[in-house]
Amino acid sequence: MRIRLCRREDLEHIQSIETTSFPDPWPLTIFGYILDRTPDLFLVAEEDELLGYIVGEIRELIISGIPHRSKAGHVMNIAVEKEWRERGVGSLLLDEIETRFKERDAQQVTLEVRESNTTARTFYVNRGYEDIGRVQAYYGDEDAIIMRKSL
Description:
Layout lengths: L1 E4 L5 H11 L6 H10 L4 E5 L3 E14 L2 E15 L8 H15 L2 E9 L3 H9 L3 E6 L8 E7 L1
């Protein structure tokens, strides 16, 4: 299994994984936009086929409207083919994006996860993430739990 940068020809397969993974999947156009915007933080795992993906971004921390030199990585999306879950694919993807965040001087990483997604929440807790807040109706029908990990 290896991690590599996403390519435009991967997007339809990514969209298929997205659609089978989430009740409110991102449209294909969003993945294309992100690939154009931050191609170095859009990664895929593959063996003989594409197994999963992760999308990230770097944010500059702003306090009281003033930008600071502190940066945070943000995991925007991650998903793995159903038959490949719990086989280390998500961990490899998360490890690689955290490494890329550190290389860009991020001091922490954040993400949002559905409150009811106990499998994902447990996965993140086991990787050192902690709950730091909640966004009401983030997913329309459900709150998001905001999680953070220091890098």
